[in-house]
């Protein structure tokens, strides 16, 4: 596979499990509770809950207080979470970690966290967060700032993909640690084309030229429905043309020639003859279903689709699919960042122990467990050189995939991101439907986002 080498400066970052990764990755989250009775309260001195996993029955040192933490995230069908927690408790016998399973729906989990944290509830100590939550939770005062822990323990944040770190940074401070990551990919039929298109213009030309080959109906598939997936697709176009929605100073910069050019390119593709007539209804499931049925030459989707293409039980294109970086605009190639991070409840009664658990989960040992047993892509670059990790999944050993992670850009980091997303969805949908021009869409997004930020 040929890969576009021009990478956006300053923009980098999988939930291998989730089809809903457009929202940052579905809680691929946790499975059965570590203990039979998930905690509803954190009890600092509950000796009955002390972990005795060590084969020799090791006990906590006399100077270490026995502590119970409650860790929350969604269901994890892989079993990796149990192994992660067990490994941590073996190394920290004075800390018991109890698991609280959150709703499978990411939005429901978000709302439940907000309700509890805003009320000052200290039940949950540590929780996994969608990459689009940190700024909102930081602004709301729900989570603990992590900089003092990072500095004290000498954590090298440069060892992580830059985009994953940026997603957890707000107002110049770090509020979340990157746990696993995700990024958009371009899939293509290797029995139809030899190499992936390098630019969006190349894609348009090739999609039109090869549409109909090997029984295909379409040249290209994307997520153009009015939902979070549309925002991710738009961010990829906007960043590839050198634009952005909000800069690091929280200034609205979406109304720019670069953003307008990106929207115009999206409109050109959506209005072409090589996409489905109902492309404005396409989401991730629609995309992978059509592509696996052999209906399209090219498709944009998340990494989870790679394994599906090789599954003979559901794929009609097995052995004929490759992937590459998304096509480039004037500023290079950019992939939308997804994935999950880990945060600490500001009201936790055990912040030091909570940090030790976060540090373990997001460090090399924890991320290796998550990668090998859970199939989730690490946020630490060096783990892609680890033979056990590389052998765990074909993607982890693929240089193009790692380049895609390096190339991933976060969505706007803002405490009002849900409102920004709603605004973008509406105005982008209007532009793609031909109701307004790209210029009008950019102007509308600018004025509405500025008003929302000013409230």
From TrEMBL:
Specify residue ranges for compositional bias: Acidic residues. 53-65
- Keyword Transport among UniProt keywords: yes
What the entry lists under SUPFAM superfamilies is as follows: Periplasmic binding protein-like II
Residue ranges of region Disordered?
27-65
Supply the name of the protein: Multiple sugar transport system substrate-binding protein
Q: Name one Pfam family in it.
A: SBP_bac_1
Biological process, per Gene Ontology = maltodextrin transmembrane transport; maltose transport
A single GO CC term for this protein reads: ATP-binding cassette (ABC) transporter complex, substrate-binding subunit-containing
Q: Which family does it belong to?
A: Belongs to the bacterial solute-binding protein 1 family.
Q: Identify the stretch annotated as signal peptide in this record.
A: 1-21
Entry keywords, A to Z:
Signal, Sugar transport, Transport
Renumbered to this chain, the Low complexity biased-composition regions fall at 35-52
CDD domains recorded:
PBP2_TMBP
GO MF, one example: maltose binding
């Amino acid at each position: 596979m040929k890969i576009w080498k021009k990478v956006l400066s300053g923009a980098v970052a999988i939930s291998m499990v989730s089809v809903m990764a457009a929202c940052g990755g579905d809680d691929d989250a946790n499975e059965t509770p570590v203990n039979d009775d998930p905690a509803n309260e954190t009890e600092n001195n509950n000796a009955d809950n002390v972990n005795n996993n060590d084969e020799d029955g090791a006990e906590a040192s006399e100077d270490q207080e026995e502590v119970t933490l409650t860790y929350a995230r969604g269901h994890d069908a892989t079993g990796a979470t149990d192994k992660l927690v067990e490994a941590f408790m073996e190394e920290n016998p004075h800390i018991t970690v109890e698991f609280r399973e959150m709703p499978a729906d990411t939005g429901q989990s978000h709302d439940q966290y907000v309700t509890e944290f805003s009320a000052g509830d200290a039940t949950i100590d540590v929780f996994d967060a969608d990459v689009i939550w940190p700024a909102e939770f930081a602004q709301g005062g729900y989570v603990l700032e992590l900089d003092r822990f990072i500095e004290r323990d000498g954590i090298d944040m440069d060892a992580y993909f830059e985009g994953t770190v940026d997603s957890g940074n707000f107002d110049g401070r770090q509020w979340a640690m990157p746990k696993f990551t995700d990024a958009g990919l371009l899939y293509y039929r290797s029995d139809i084309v030899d190499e992936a298109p390098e630019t969006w213009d190349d894609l348009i030309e090739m999609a039109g030229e090869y549409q109909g080959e090997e029984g295909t109906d379409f040249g290209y598939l994307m997520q153009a429905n009015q939902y979070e997936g549309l925002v991710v697709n738009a961010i990829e176009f906007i960043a590839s043309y050198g634009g952005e929605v909000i800069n690091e100073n929280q200034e609205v910069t979406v109304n720019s020639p670069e953003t307008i050019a990106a929207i115009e390119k999206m409109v050109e593709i959506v209005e072409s003859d090589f996409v489905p007539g109902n492309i404005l209804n396409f989401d991730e499931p629609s995309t992978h279903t059509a592509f696996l049925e052999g209906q399209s030459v090219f498709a944009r989707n998340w990494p989870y689709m790679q394994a599906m293409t090789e599954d003979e039980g559901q794929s009609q294109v097995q052995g004929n699919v490759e992937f590459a970086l998304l096509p480039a605009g004037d500023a290079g190639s950019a992939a939308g960042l997804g994935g999950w991070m880990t945060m600490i409840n500001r009201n936790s009664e055990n912040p030091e122990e909570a940090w030790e658990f976060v540090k373990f989960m997001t460090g090399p040992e924890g991320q290796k467990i998550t990668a090998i047993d859970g199939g989730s892509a690490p946020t630490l670059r060096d783990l892609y050189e680890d033979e056990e990790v590389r052998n765990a999944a074909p993607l982890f050993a693929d240089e193009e995939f790692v380049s895609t992670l390096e190339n991933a850009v976060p969505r706007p980091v803002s405490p009002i991101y849900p409102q920004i997303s709603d605004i973008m969805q509406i105005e982008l949908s209007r532009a793609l439907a031909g109701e307004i021009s790209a210029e009008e869409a950019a102007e509308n997004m600018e004025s509405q986002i500025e008003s929302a930020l000013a409230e």
